[in-house]
């Protein structure tokens, strides 16, 4: 059986036994001693149950230990009073005779109060002056009790003022505990934590019991004579045990996992407002019916305490206002921050108004930071904030999102109005800034979006807030890629960008899944007509989009850092295919293209060496094609990588020759084995004399440097014949064959009926 079904068992037993014991005490006074013993045992059971619950508690253990300790103090003091009186029926004579024991019964209340404070502090952030709230309540209760019970009890019982104060203090403390528990429930909510209403109920029942007992002592509710227990005394005993049982039931409840909250709203003011109203009521009573002097003094003390509490609350309000302002303010510029941006967007959306949003990014801010230092960069940002503030409409909200990014909220504006404001922003930022005595020019890229488009994509706010900012950010990057200026969000452009991102994720997974495949295009020796090599051209067999050409994904791979993985897969497949050709009697070389990022990878030569060695291929059968543009990206690192590639034994081909700007310098410094003439010269060689002259001159240059010249893009027989006349060594193009899968190469060679000769070896490169 689950623990939850056992929770009410002990409290129910306490209720039943309390009724039985109290009934026995009322019906048969002769059994009073036995009934008192039974009550004592029940109270010991309550204390033990609280102690066990505190020991087993996973949360708020200290609070329940304090509850158990406070209950134990009350029980021990009460039992000691019963033992000293010789009866569980306490009358004014007993109280007057055993005053110290009466005072001892009050020692448990500080522990109860500390337990409630512990529960409240664990649930709330920054609980201010809970002890002051308690002191205010004590003062008011003391004043009220002095006004209501002091004179009546003296007249009815003849007890001294000290004894009456001790007797009155207990119900006063009960009221304080009940009010504090109810306040805690109102602060934290009634449903989230079922233990709190049970604690409030326990002290409410105890308050009713002790107030009733006080009235009994005054003779207003049943007999007070020793030895006789009337129905009022029975009800008091039952109620006290029921209060203990409620505490046990609360302690045995599981603690919910709730986040800590901030104390806010009217419950925070419940204690001081209640004390103030009660004090005013007592002072009004004093005008018509003279109250005891002690009651008046205590009332004024309570009012003074309320004044202190209000002063503390005002100080807290000032602090909260300052914290709230800091929460929505950028520390560097004093502008609103990202939090304020979303608050304004939510506010305008709640009012049903369309809203324009500009995202402004400074173009050359990094140069200022790197050149003049970060402190000058901060000065520039502050100056930009001032200038932007001066050029924006009055209803606009200018915010700094971070770094050199600013955002402008334009209530009631669409994209057209946003574009006009964006142009004003660019005009304002076009003037130079004076930073550190220097004139600094910074431009900006501005993206414009409006909530109408955001709602179409993301639906209603609040999701539209983030979508609107994303759209403005996408437009800003379009402007930045264009070199600056203004760009309005375009859904088609954005969709294409998101499609590229989706394609990037697919590519990353596709590489791992082996979806990259190679097609090969033959390279033919013009002198012999024999096929001497194959260029490996990568394709992507996409599961949804089919076979994709390199143009669809290679730029994306290079941009996103995946080209190293792509090249590794191409090398592995190409080398393995070349080995199969050789084993089939076709010793063809294989050419693989290298991207810019590959030449900047110092580990590339070792990877090439490992791949060739693992496959068992002669490294001279591998040609690595690089472009002049690739070499120009970082000449020093590229040269070191190319030197390492040559050390592996592989050949290097300069691809797209003639389209770069430093061809002769690279030819001088790189001992390549091949020049690959770009198709722009090949296609016109048969009909354009200048192009033919360039081809012939390039052939002479290549041969003089010990290289072969390969012309790509050969589409017809006339071009092929003319290239042979101009001194070209090898050709490649659709005239020979389109790129084909590796599995078709051997069949194509057989069908072509060609004999593969090793091809003419070029002379040794000139060093």
Written description of the protein model:
This protein is 60% helix and 13% strand. The chain contains 30 helices and 19 strands. The chain has an eight-stranded mixed β-barrel with strand order 10-11-13-14-15-16-17-18, surrounded by five helices. Strands 4-5-3-8-9 form a five-stranded mixed β-sheet, with helices on both faces. A two-stranded parallel ribbon has the order 1-2. β15 (651-657), α26 and β16 (674-677) form a beta-alpha-beta unit. α9 (195-217) runs antiparallel to α10 (231-251). The two termini are 91 Å apart.
How are the secondary structure elements laid out?
Blueprint: H1 9-27, H2 32-56, H3 61-85, H4 92-97, H5 99-104, H6 108-123, E1 124-125, H7 130-157, H8 161-188, H9 195-217, H10 231-251, E2 261-262, H11 270-288, H12 293-327, H13 338-350, E3 355-362, H14 365-372, H15 374-391, E4 397-402, E5 405-411, H16 415-430, E6 433-435, E7 438-440, E8 444-450, H17 451-458, H18 463-481, E9 485-488, H19 491-512, E10 516-525, E11 531-542, E12 546-548, H20 554-559, H21 563-583, E13 589-593, H22 596-599, H23 604-615, E14 622-627, H24 628-633, H25 635-647, E15 651-657, H26 663-669, E16 674-677, H27 679-682, H28 689-704, E17 708-712, H29 717-725, E18 730-732, E19 740-741, H30 742-752
Parallel strand pairs: 1-2, 8-9, 11-13, 13-14, 14-15, 15-16, 16-17, 17-18
Antiparallel strand pairs: 3-5, 3-8, 4-5, 6-7, 10-11, 10-18, 10-19, 11-12
